[in-house]
Amino acid sequence: MERMLDYIGLNIDLPISDPTWIFFLVLAIILFAPIIFERLHIPHIIGMILAGVLVGEHGFNILARDSSFELFGQVGLYYIMFLAGLEMNMEDFKSIRFKAVTLGLLAFIVPMVIGVWTNLNLLGYGLITSILLASMYASHTLVTYPIVQRYGVTRQRSVGIAVGGTAVTDTLTLIVLAVISGLYKGDVSDMYWLWMLLKVVVLGTVILYTFPRIGRWFFRRYSDGVVQFIFVLAMVFLGAGLMAFVGMEGILGAFLVGLVLNRLIPQVSPLMNHLEFVGNALFIPYFLIGVGMLINVDVLFGHVDSIKVASVMIVVALVGKWIASWLTQKIFGMSNREGNLMYGLSTAQAAATLAAVMVGYNIIMPSGERLLNEDVLNGTILLILVTCIVSSFITEDAAKRIAMDDNAAAVGEEYSQEQERILVPVANPGTINSLMSLALVVRDEKVRDNLVALSVINDNNDSKKLEMLARRNLERAAQIAASAGVTLKTVSRFDLNITTGILHTAKENNITSLIIGLHYKSSIVDSFFGKMTENLLKNTSRQVMIVNLLMPVNTLRRIVVAVPPKAEYEPGFVKWVTQICRMGTQLGCWVYFYGEEMTLGYIKGVISKKRFTTRTRFFTMDSWDDLLMLSNRINYDHLFVVVSARRGFISYDNSFDKLPMQVSRYFNNSSVMILFPEQKGSPIDNLSFANPHGIAEAKVYEKIGSWVSKLFNRNDGSQPPGLS
After folding, report:
1. With contact defined as beta carbons under 8 Å apart, do 543 and 675 qualify?
2. Is 56 within the bounds of a domain?
3. Is the bond into 266 cis (omega within 30 degrees of 0)?
4. What residues contact 275, with CB distance under 8 A and at least 6 apart?
5. 612 and 660 share a domain?
6. Which of 133, 241, 528, 716 holds its CA 20 to 30 A away from the CA of 107?
7. Cβ count within 10 A of residue 323
8. Considering the entire predicted model, what is its pTM?
9. Residues 460-494: tens digit of each pLDDT
10. In angstroms, how far is the first alpha carbon of the chain from the final one?
């Protein structure tokens, strides 16, 4: 390459050492490699690795594998493991943890057994060398995980099994690596192994116990996206660094941090979008290019022994991983496509393999020979290249077929003629973040363009000032949605009042649900909901969620839902149960349902039919008057959801008239949502909550004395069934 440049008159020293040009060339590779190799029907990941081969010191020697590639490559490797843990559905993982452990053990044992035998008998290595080399066959790296991200199948059980199995396999591999390296340390005591195991267990417990609490504390106090992003990266490298400090590879610590922060970073949140974007745009490609730069094609094909060793290594690694995936598939009755996806994800060799070969290459035995010679070192590079190529093609094919099956199943499902569309009025700048965050975790991810933000402007003398405020509010809402990768339609309109503006927008955009903030009660004669909300409830039959969030949505630890009798007979029953479960799944928190036994049975039926993985518990509440008993069971970090109804409909009860006073007095320290399900037919003028100038609220105050007396009489230790 250097001669070619000299021939055409360009005096450039290679490899390039100017940081500006190094970074430019890397960005050019990241930009053009996927475009070029996509036309050749070669997976993007392989394109990155092959590009690294071409520009590396064993190719055209354009770039040297300097400290920048080591740094960003290490970050990319941690990022892959971190995202794998972060995107794992913890509820699904609990149901498949036995399958994941099975795959992990098989993916370790089968290649180890085959590898030790072939290394002893075919390659003629000693026992220690054979064990270390076999552990390299057993390890694997989730190099192809970005492929399943791209096809949107990360929540498939086969992906969860493969990710969980990776943690098991790599942990066992790293233990073997630590044991063998410890054998050649002069200061190893009899307690070395026990002490190392104890340190790993203690550190893992510390990460699992303290990191979620630190994260929840931080997210509640700091809402800036940049600050949150830096905090998460710091936690990832802290976990990885601590794990390396006790003698294990940092990838295990990065994976654990992803698992423990899983519930604090919803899949559709802006923070999650930022983390994925930065990793997939910069750090992970840097890692892949760095892997390619290690490959020396000339050395591989210039030595017969290197080709023999590499051939044995490749065959054993591919066959061993295939047997493990096939056995797991047959044991648990999984489909061929699921088996192929597990095989594709668990085949690529990179991180732990490189760590093992470098440790073995640097160990000098008493005979003066290296534990792993140059033939093994060169064979490892070819092993990485071939397994990454095979893994990419298999994962690409399996993920594409599974995604096509999912899309076909979605089209074949019976959907209502109305497609979900959620309207979020953004009049108050202080509630935009909370309302939009709630809308993002409630919405159906499979439906595009189902969020609408609205700002209504009264036509008066201050309309110019109000118009500027409305524009800023809508821009803020659009930023939140865009940072989460969600399309938001913004609507700004002039109208006689806010209520009519919301109603007209809802009709024009076929809105099915509204999310609005709770009215701020400015005076003692002001009603709980306010005139605007009351008029809105009177004039629409759509589902309305009235929300007052006291903390960020992603830090909620539990959702407590109070369900009135006969709620299952309302037309919007399935819709609100679906959205509550969807929210619980996204936030990874428990959902507690309180209600009559028959109603709870219908809720269980909906959850079972729609196959939600939400963590749920059900408690019998025989009487709606027992609602106040829940005040002792709702903490500051819980969301209390009260399912109500409009007057005159099936589940309406006269006791609903007490709800404004009950909620404001006994649940004022908790985040609250009052949910009015969708109704059929024309809206009825009478409200379910009393008008402050009407009769119903007066009746409430007449009953306060007897009602409070009843409450205290029940605090004698006796509690309704299901509330203990």
Report:
1. yes
2. no
3. no
4. 83, 86, 229, 232, 265
5. yes
6. 241
7. 16
8. 0.66
9. 656 677 778 888 888 888 888 887 878 889 888 88
10. 77
